[in-house]
């Protein structure tokens, strides 16, 4: 299913055409000057600004390092390549670049800043996707920054040899460290584009939402952002691992990496290397992409001092205003009718084997009662397991420490308004990049949801004049805004199901520690 996510989102990579009119006045950055490209309505875009050194050679599987300073004015008119993935029009290990859209008239404008982290299962995607065009946000007086980051084995490889090499004794989480480096770049440089470094909102979707989850949890990002928006937070039983031991759902992150590297080197005929790290860094990008490797955060004692669940439970996370939510049919992207269970007994046997004793309470909520309900029950299970559960986890944690906490449920399906909204459906609405043939209803929804996001980025609250009132979220009532053709409110979204799933996760983690 993760592989399907990577294919679907990487297929959306379309390079945006570059206008020819360049801005005359360069912006002075920490490492050099850049000039941008003037678009319509007074917006200027700066594409392909390096925020870290190319993570190649000896810097593969190292925390990001500062970029090399340059002389003269760098023309920032072309997106940097996508980070290495299964397929993309242009990709490279040299991929740590970001982009800025701004309508500011001067460096003194102090506009709110929004930093976008794309999704794609930590395996695909890039800022060059036309879906993520930042002009719509810039036109609403936001400085929009979008960032690439290392993915796949390049961004999430943990390995005993890498940990031994590290001064901190850790490995993995390189993609999250790329986010931190990008936010440090924003802190130091965004004022040159008219942005306020004291008002930075991070936002992301799917794996980008999982990155928001990690940034909320890591002390390394403390003070680097001031609000957070998480769309469809993608945290599964297997994409969070302990660095050195099993957590009940997954082998340790180091063991997953060790096994992947060992199998690939054996396949390549390299079984007698004198220096394992040298052999690993000599592997081609194609070799690493061919490995059987699954991405995960690593609970390493540094980036993540303990498990994110514990960090959120104890209130040790970065406390900022939070807006988070899900689509009401997330699982429609991942569960195919022709590939799901065909009988009730088949579903029961598979799920009971998966859940084990800790999951005994899930049967009442996720096993279908009729053959006709098999497909919808699997869609609901995927929605809750991958997205709704971690979404509620961060909302509950934040609401106990921060009154400005807000939840949404997105219900509009652009392709078929009679169906639920699948995973990623809200993206074109949020960025106002709907297709030309979109209906007036869809354009109204898009304008409204982007207004909510901008209001939240400006003041830490989505409410403003002209928009339907949005009640705050609290862990007891779990009030949320339902955004679709009409805007309404609901409470307790899938409360019983998510309560059972929380118990399942807690018991599994507890058993692994015994």
Oligomer: single chain
What is the correct CATH architecture of the largest domain?
A: 3-Layer(aba) Sandwich
Q: Which CATH C-level class of the largest domain is it?
A: Alpha Beta
Strand order of the largest sheet: 3-4-6-8-7-9-10-13-14-15-16
Arithmetic mean pLDDT: 94
Give the proportion of residues in helices. 25-40%
User: Which band does the percent of strand residues land in?
Assistant: 15-25%
Layout of secondary structure:
Blueprint: H1 2-10, E1 27-29, E2 32-35, E3 37-38, E4 44-50, E5 73-75, E6 97-102, E7 111-117, H2 135-139, E8 143-147, H3 152-156, H4 160-165, H5 174-189, E9 195-205, H6 207-217, E10 227-231, E11 240-242, H7 253-267, H8 276-282, H9 285-289, E12 297-299, H10 308-313, E13 322-327, H11 344-355, H12 363-366, H13 374-399, E14 405-410, H14 427-430, H15 440-459, E15 480-483, E16 487-490, H16 495-513
Parallel strand pairs: 2-5, 7-8, 7-9, 9-10, 10-13, 11-12, 13-14, 14-15
Antiparallel strand pairs: 1-2, 3-4, 4-6, 6-8, 15-16
